[in-house]
Amino acid sequence: MTPSVIPSQRSTGLDSDPELSRLLASHHEGYALTREFYTSPDVYERDLDAIWRQGWLFAAHSCELPKPGDFVTLDVGPDPIVVIRAEDGTVHALHNVCRHRGSVICTEPCGHVAKLVCPYHQWAYGLDGRLVAWRGMQESLRKDDFGLSRAAACEVEGLVFINLSPTPSPFETARDCLAPLLKPQGFRKAKIAKSVDYLVSANWKLVWENNRECYHCNVNHPQYIKANFDHYNQDDTSARIREEMLEASQRTAEKWVAAGIPTHSQTGMTPFPDAERGIWFSANRTPLVDGWVTESMDGRPVAPLMGDYKEVEVGTLRIRTLPNYWNHSSSDHGVSTRLLPVGPTETAIRVWWLVDENAVEGRDYTLARLLPFWQLTSEQDWLICERQQKGVSSKAFRPGPYSTYKEYNVQGFIQWYLKNLDLSRVPGA
After folding, report:
1. Whole-angstrom distance, CA of residue 69 vs CA of residue 52
2. Cβ-based burial of 230 (10 A; exposed 0-12, middle 13-18, buried ≥19)
3. pTM (whole model) above 0.90
4. Sheet holding 281-286, edge to edge
């Protein structure tokens, strides 16, 4: 269920540029961030304004909103949002806050409505957020002045993104890069087999950093390393393993091209991330270890083929969008993970398992075979993040150096984060 913890709203001490400058200056290139970035309520408020209320956020899957009137809700920090499909088929993102006296309107995590009706005084809104009824109000007021506050919303091949900024950055570049890679997966023709919600006692940045490296994988992810090459790195990869990786990459890339399955090298996917160039998204297709055709416990298929795939051996499609989404998808199923900030040391996380829309549970797949690979891997990571949060909260914590072999993606994320935090101080940035 959607977390109910609402951080207090107050002015932030980081509105003072000298204080933010001190924190930014405290960071040493190639080292982890200082404690305040993971614990301070003021930094959390700055994160909300500079990152979460400015960038494109993954909100939902299109298959969760198949018909007009279908909706899902989510909380971006203290901001409740409803994402709903309107009569014309488009998806709208609306602030889930009545324009009368501020009550939350949609109180369930998902559902279907003919119109949005506030439970407090029954002000009613159309599926596009227009005010359509307000019993007991004086005739001198105009309904057009009191529609729900809007946020931007865009769909790309079955994924729904929203942006809370009054002047959102363009989505077209992300759509053009992601769409060709996403299309064969068939998320538009998928269904949710299962979703699981977690409230993780760790700052959202710690969760993201954990996802961006496999330095920890050998010891912490016994299931994951059987299927993937990530845990092998430049400094510890034997000649045999390196040769195996190169051969698998070459063989599978040739096979994908022959089958008409796009790869990131064909779609012009740009380096990720890059705050100055506005690059907050990335996707690639990568081979699995020989003997594994899907990310399951034994490497064998756990559901029917998805989308446009004609055979099972398509590797894994990996998607990442800052600040809150990643996905690993095999030929037979996909697994999406969404982060939402709850407070300085808490993150709400939802994990979805997707299968083909026509797959029938008990006949074509079972949750007992579909879930374990990524449920185990995810929960192993949440435990790691909670342990790290406890450690970085200590006054004894001192930032350590990143491994140039294994943590370069973490360092890239930190550079992106700090750049966006710094840009938030520049008028009009």
Report:
1. 26
2. middle
3. yes
4. 190-200, 346-356, 334-343, 325-329, 316-321, 281-286
